[in-house]
Design goal:
The complex is a heterodimer. In chain A, the strands form five sheets. In chain A, strands 6-13-7-8-12-9-11-10-14-15 form a ten-stranded mixed beta sheet, with helices on both faces. In chain A, about 35% of the residues lie in helices and about 20% in strands. In chain A, helix 19 crosses helix 22. Chain A is globular, with a radius of gyration of 28 Å. Chain A contains 24 helices and 30 strands. By secondary structure, chain B is an alpha+beta fold. Chain B folds into two domains: about 10-150, 60s Ribosomal Protein L30, Chain: A; about 165-325, PurM-like C-terminal domain (Phosphoribosyl-aminoimidazole Synthetase, Chain A, domain 2, Alpha-Beta Complex), CATH 3.90.650. In chain B, the strands form three sheets. A seven-stranded mixed beta sheet of chain B has the order 8-10-7-11-9-12-13. Chain B is globular, with a radius of gyration of 21 Å. Classes of the chains: A alpha/beta, B alpha+beta. Bound molecules: fe (iii) ion, magnesium ion and zinc ion (ZN) (2 copies). Magnesium ion binds next to strand 1 of chain B. Chain A: Pfam families: Acylphosphatase (PF00708), HypF_C (PF17788), HypF_C_2 (PF22521), Sua5_yciO_yrdC (PF01300), zf-HYPF (PF07503).
Chain lengths: ~800, ~325
């Protein structure tokens, strides 16, 4: 019996060749009907036998390679279609645009550019439905060529034929182009002996020059990764002394020349998002790329331009963001030519405009799990389907944090986390953020009912949110920093709005806590609505406020004085045990600590790592980038050759005690005593570093044990969370930037899972402040519902 | 020192102390109010400027000044930056039992001296003595009146794109001096407060640059605080050149240790002036010719407000820029 069905497919189904995919399947199955984009979904009308329609449904549930199908719903339809199956024009109007992330170069297009005689041989701006720019070129909704920065390029007859042929892999690939009709490559530089821009750029790089290259989401600065002098020049010109530089390689084989990616890391490298993946470097790592670290950020050539250039150069390239110190990455040619004039020797670019800045995404395998560290090009804008129950909650706009700004739109049971916007205090980033906000709102059509912000009143993001809430008369919800960290992770692991409470461990630098102190190593017993402070690292002063986050020796003094007392610390300095404290204004710092002048109490995990790095003499006097000391400490820990640092350093542990106000407090005093003694005895710094990581994991696990129900008290109600008993506490949720530390997280997860606890870790959203907005959004939505009941 | 109406002898002693220091004509009849002839006032301009401020500082005496000079300068400067010529001040004192009489004498004497220097008279006042512990040694409240010349329309809301931002000298001296003077920081540096009355300097400036748009004394919140208000009130964006900010090396040193920024530290003898570009050079020269402006500098420029409103941006030596934002209260750590 021939009948017609109306089939609705939702998810990431646009800009990924979904309609031609449907067309091909329908033709294969000899179905009649049509397919069209309907704003947030794809609509298929198919006339055929039940068996034919079922086969189509089967295929639709899969979708083409880069689609992510969420739901397929079918309803009968009265119309009967005859003749060939067709692709109808797309329509605007609905919410959600289904705009997808940028995709890395596909094998078929790679073959095209490498095949002499092909129309697109050596063409740097080719793409198809399986690859190419998407979000980076979208200017308006819906996703059609006219609403991209490809609009000015009129298709030639050959390209148009491909674009209109449903059987072609370029069917409705909006940015389709060829050398005859598409964007062209240009080179600007001092001497231009070569005719071809690619050849000129290759020449420059091979001579040790620095090249500015226009990529998918912005300009990069490139130089030979094997040329120590070029790297030094790049670092000097960019005022970037030690921050690790990412390296781009032509393929995974080239990567193995100086790095040893694991199988999981290889998969990440080859993901369509083509992120920077931090992998283990081998001893062959060229000097100057990642000083003091045993990991290197690698990515594969992800555009045809990169592939062609790397093939010609024949060597890996440093690929760092193209910006002046303190400024965000340049995306337009004029800015790049002007701003990078003192840094680059030559410019390789093209006339396809970048619609928005998208930094390279950064991902890593942390304790065996793929983890997003920076949510940028290739990942944004992905929608995270939220667990059942969120769909009925009011829409929320969450403003995120400041240093790794990203906001989050939450509506209809989905969360859309924006791409990484950068540091809101840096030049122009606040304006970029406002622009992005306007962009997302028009592209994805959110009308929030609530605005969520970090509770810190001096966050730029807080002020932006407060202004918005005033302008639009929307309620403002300030969310505590560490609750947001935990809630973000809960949401991405499918915990519904009525989830029983979990134990959250949030470890980061600092975030404002409800008690007015700087939090940073906290145990919470929380659900989405309420967070009960259950444990923390013991307070130490933060002498100099944010200055202490840049100068690890300050934290070493604060920790040692707190743990051992000033006299013991002074003795250790006199014995030459603490070079980090030599010739430092210790008197003044101690006076600050004594009088409380700009020395607020903190329970920061990040600053604890800084202090330990300073003790072990691997922290510079002043850090040149965030996480520098902690990453060196992690590197050092991995170099430990002793299987069991805890057997060598049995006293290296935290004390755990209950404070008068009922908090379980990890006190590092014994740890500092043991570490100093070990250093005095000449035990290897790597062993002490490993012992520190082990001790922290141990201490956190012990803290969790204190919060778990005893068999006797499982029915004891949780006073902080009415309606729940302690029996509910079987899930531990991790959050905060420290959760990117593989050594710590591996040890912690092992310990927790050995207790049969369920451990949830950030994967979709970054564990650090880049993921805050997601947490703020779900907390606010859950609370908003509570208010309306 | 005994408080209240109790010790009549002490009461008389204090009254005499103030009278002798502040009275232009000793032994003149004491009325309940100062009387200022209107005619003389009217001759100086067409508007009366009137301001008041209370002063609390620890320690009471510090290098470069004390609570008394602070009170005189603070009020005189609040008048001066409105373009007003200060005429008369009132001074009210709350003294705690136990305050050393010698200390009070020194403070009162230097107040009188400072007022003379500022060309203003302290014409009325009051004292109260409270029990020890009810107040921290000594609090002073000063009010002042001044005359604004006709046609003078200096305003925080008057800055325009293209204008130049000037300061009359080094930033943060007062704030750093107070921090060091507390002694408990064990900082072995000698920094004197910049406490000074700016009336004369303002007159000099206005004579050289009659088009001066805005003036503000940069007290609590520092120069950054003034600039934030200025940008907001004038609906403009300000770009500061970090390398052009005049700061004493000792102050840089103290700030480095404490994790503070000179731009946010208090001053008591510094003003921010916004002048039209055409008058910037003469204004700067005039400031530098004055004893209180030898280290005057052009620190930035006024531009159109961005698409999202006013801002203050600091440009560093490498060309990097960051936004300057004022903390809402006590500065809390922000780095995660
Ligand atoms: Fe954080
Ligand atoms: Mg005042
Ligand atoms: Zn392709
Ligand atoms: Zn073409």
């Amino acid at each position: 019996m021939r009948a017609t069905e109306r089939i609705i497919v939702t998810g990431s189904v646009q800009g990924v060749g979904f309609r031609p995919f449907v067309w091909r399947k329908a033709h294969l199955l000899a179905l009649a009907g049509e397919v069209r984009n309907r704003g947030d979904h794809v609509e298929v009308l198919a006339t055929g036998t039940e068996a034919q329609r079922n086969s189509l449904i089967e295929a639709l549930r899969q979708g083409p390679p880069h689609a992510r199908v969420e739901t397929v719903t079918r309803t009968p339809d009265k119309r009967i279609f005859t003749g060939a199956f067709t692709i109808a024009t797309s329509e605007a109007g609905a919410l959600h645009s289904g705009i997808v992330p940028d995709l890395a170069l596909c094998p078929a297009c790679r073959a095209d550019i490498n095949t002499p005689g092909s129309r697109r041989w050596r063409y740097a701006l080719t793409c198809c439905t399986d690859c190419g720019p998407r979000f980076s070129i979208v200017t308006d909704f819906p996703y059609d060529r006219a609403n991209t920065t490809m609009a000015p390029f009129t298709l030639c007859a050959a390209c148009r034929a491909e674009y209109e042929n449903p059987a072609d892999r370029r069917f409705h690939a909006e940015p389709v182009a060829c050398p005859a009709c598409g964007p062209r490559l240009y080179y600007t530089g001092p001497a231009q002996p070569e005719e071809d821009p690619l050849d000129s750029a290759t020449h420059l790089l091979k001579q040790g020059g620095i090249l500015a290259i226009k990529g998918t989401g912005g300009y990069h600065l490139a130089c030979l990764a094997t040329d120590t002098a070029a790297i030094a020049t790049l670092r000097a010109r960019k005022h970037r002394p030690t921050k690790p530089l990412a390296v781009m390689v032509a393929n995974t084989d080239a990567a193995s020349a100086f790095a040893a990616p694991s199988a999981a890391e290889l998969l990440l490298l080859q993901d369509a998002s083509a992120p920077i993946v931090t992998v283990r470097a081998t001893s062959a790592l060229p000097e100057g790329l990642a000083p003091g670290l045993d990991r290197i950020g690698l990515m594969l050539a992800y555009t045809p331009l990169h592939a062609l250039l790397l093939a010609q150069v024949g060597q890996p390239l440093v690929m760092t963001s193209g910006n002046r110190s303190g400024a965000p990455q340049a995306i337009d040619d004029e800015t790049a030519l002007h701003d990078l004039a003192g840094i680059a020797d030559g410019w390789l670019y093209h006339d396809r405009r970048i619609a928005r800045r998208l930094d390279d995404s950064v991902r890593a395998v942390v304790a065996g799990q793929a983890t997003t560290l920076r949510h940028g090009r290739g990942l944004a804008p992905r929608r995270l389907p939220l667990p059942a129950g969120f769909a009925s909650l009011p829409p929320v706009l969450a403003m995120g944090g400041d240093l790794k700004a990203a906001f989050c739109l939450m509506q209809d049971g989905q969360a859309l986390l924006s791409h990484h916007l950068g540091d809101l205090h840096a030049e122009g980033v606040e304006n970029t953020a406002r622009q992005a906000l306007a962009d997302y709102r028009s592209l994805f059509g959110l009308t929030p009912a609530f605005i969520a912000v970090d509770a810190h009143p001096d966050y730029v993001s807080h002020r932006l949110g407060a202004t918005l809430s005033q302008q639009r008369a929307l309620p403002l919800h300030p969310i505590w920093h560490h609750h947001a960290h935990i809630a973000a992770c809960m949401a991405e692991h499918g915990l519904g709005p009525d989830t029983p409470p979990v134990i959250g461990l949030a470890l980061d630098g600092t975030g404002l806590g409800p008690d007015g102190t700087a939090w940073g190593c906290e145990a919470l017993v929380c659900d989405y609505r309420t967070a009960h402070h259950a444990g923390r690292l013991a307070h130490v002063p933060l002498p100099g406020g944010d200055r202490a986050a840049r100068e690890p020796w300050r934290m070493l003094l604060a920790h040692l004085d707190t743990a051992l007392g000033p006299d013991a610390t002074t003795r250790a300095v006199a014995q030459g045990l603490l070079p980090a404290l030599h010739n430092r204004p210790l008197h003044a710092l101690r006076a600050m600590i004594r009088t409380g002048l700009n020395a607020p109490p903190c329970s920061s995990a990040g600053r604890l790592f800084d202090a330990m790095a300073a003790l072990l003499d691997i922290a510079p006097e002043r850090l040149s980038h965030e996480g520098e000391a902690a990453m060196r400490l992690e590197t050092l820990a991995r170099q430990n050759t002793h299987m069991r640092p805890d057997s060598l350093l049995p006293d290296m542990r935290f004390a755990l005690a209950r404070t008068p106000d009922g908090l379980w407090e990890l006190n590092p005093a014994p740890l500092w005593k043991a570490a100093l003694t070990a250093k005095e005895r000449g035990i290897a710094a790597s062993t002490i570093a490993a012992g520190f990581h082990a001790a922290l994991a141990e201490g956190l696990a012990d803290l969790v044990v204190k919060l778990l129900p005893e068999p006797a008290d499982t029915q004891e109600p949780l006073s902080a969370l009415p309606g729940f008993t302690r029996a509910a506490l079987r899930t531990v949720v991790l959050g905060g930037g420290v959760m990117a530390n593989d050594v710590l997280v591996s040890a912690l997860v092992t310990r927790l899972e050995a207790m049969s606890l369920r451990v949830l870790r950030p994967a979709f959203a970054p564990p650090g402040d880049g993921g805050l907005a997601l947490g703020q959004a779900v907390v606010t939505a859950a609370r908003a519902r509570m208010e309306t009941i | 020192m005994a408080h209240g109406g109790g010790g009549t002898a002490m009461r008389a002693l204090i009254d005499t102390l103030f009278l002798e220091a502040f009275s232009a004509t000793p032994h003149a009849p004491q009325e309940d109010q100062a009387r200022l002839p209107l005619e003389a006032l009217a001759a100086g301009g067409d508007r009366l400027a009137f301001t008041t401020d209370s002063f609390v500082v620890e320690p009471l005496e510090f290098p470069g000044g004390n609570i008394g000079t602070l009170a005189v300068c603070g009020t005189v400067n609040d008048l001066a930056v409105g373009g007003a010529r200060p005429v008369a001040l009132s001074a009210a004192f709350i003294l705690a039992e136990g305050l050393e009489l010698a200390c009070l004498r020194r403070i009162v004497a230097s107040m009188a001296e400072c007022a003379r220097e500022a060309g203003v008279r302290i014409v009325t006042g009051d004292t109260k003595v409270v029990p020890k512990g009810a107040c921290d040694g000594l609090y002073v409240t000063t009010s002042g009146v001044g005359i604004i010349p006709a046609g003078c329309n200096i305003s925080i809301a008057a800055a325009q794109p293209g204008d130049v931002v000037l300061v009359n000298g080094t930033l943060g001296d007062h704030g750093a001096a107070i921090l060091c003077a507390r002694g408990d920081l064990a900082l072995d540096v000698a920094i004197a407060s910049d406490c000074a009355p700016l009336g004369g300097l303002v007159e000099t400036l206005l004579a050289a640059a009659p088009g001066t748009r805005s003036l503000r004394d940069a007290t609590r919140g520092g120069v950054a605080g003034v600039l934030s208000e200025l940008a907001e009130a004038s609906a403009v964006s300000l770009t500061l050149d970090e390398t052009a900010l005049p700061v004493r090396p000792e102050v840089v040193g103290v700030c480095d240790i404490l994790g503070l920024e000179p731009l946010f530290l208090a001053n008591e003898g510094k003003l921010v002036a916004v002048v039209p570009q055409t008058e910037a050079e003469t204004a700067l020269a005039a400031l530098r010719a004055h004893p209180l402006g030898r280290q005057a500098a052009a620190i930035g420029t006024v531009g159109e407000a961005g698409p999202y409103g006013p801002s203050v941006v600091l440009r560093n030596a490498f060309g990097g820029r960051r936004t300057v934002t004022m903390p809402s209260g006590e500065q809390l750590p922000r780095i995660c």
